[in-house]
Amino acid sequence: FKKGNFAAGINAGVDAMIAKVQGDDLPPPVKGASKGKSSEFGHGPMSGKNAPSFGGLVVGLIVAGSVLSAFVSRLTSGFLVGAGGFLLGWLFLGLSMGVLLAIVAWNSIYIVYQTEKAVLLQFGKIQNPDVKPGLHFKVPLMNQVRKFDGRLLTLESPIQRILTKEKKAVMVDAYAKWRVADAEHFYTATSGIRQIADDRLSQRLITALANQFGTRTLHEVVSGERDLLMADITKSLNGMAQKELGIEVVDVRVKAIDLPKEVYRSVFDRMSSEREREAREHRAKGRELAEGIRA
Predict the structure, then answer these.
(1) Could you tell me which residues are beta bridge partners of residue 126?
(2) What is the pTM of this model?
(3) Is the dihedral of CA 264, 266, 269, 271 positive or negative?
(4) Measured between alpha carbons, how far is 13 from 242 in angstroms, rounded to an integer?
(5) For the chain, how big is the Rg over CA atoms in Å?
(6) pLDDT by residue (tens digit) across 76-97?
(7) The 3-state secondary structure of 62-73, one letter per residue
């Protein structure tokens, strides 16, 4: 930039703003300012369809700081820019640069804790699939960090109606313990969203329960082979989860196995009819003994 035209342009702009604030007419243009030419700032990385850049942001901040400092100096010292206004402008510029550097530093540092898993992205693509715990640095606007909970998590499966080998329906209440094993695979399969992981794991848990219950009788799943049943479900579900979701299933537990409500009613009716039949037999025997005694 030409030093004289640049300073004269800023002074003219400041005079115009002051006149506008005070309600006066616009002052005549300052001698030496460029005439008949488009602004030197009308074209560049911030105009048209060009995307904004970090360098353009710095230049814009410096120009804005210079204009604002000159404006403040004019308001505080009249219409002459003195040494105090000059120092005030440089002070404002220094503060602006300090704030900018603080923002850049804040967005360049990130921490991964021991209880977390993380992947580092560069323009949406995975650059580091397994970021280790500790303090790390990244490039603002270029790198993004996605963190996941690396602790042991619990999936509460809804109660499901499942058929045994004998085609008898039972209501199964189960839960699973899982954690992220492969951060890259987990991110690509679920976008790093736990709700998506829970939904997909829940579907696979129901499938594993149905497969294992379908090979056992009601007695085996209730008492005979319950521990073996849970171990087989854990092994089957863990294989599917690691292959499809990048997570490790540590344990699967069956909390309760109940009969459906309609089965409860049928069992109660059958028990009631048996008790009534036994009562009729006892009453018949009693009448027979009574007649023999009276005779």
Answers:
(1) 121
(2) 0.57
(3) negative
(4) 65
(5) 40
(6) 454 444 555 556 667 777 888 8
(7) HHHHHHHHHHHH
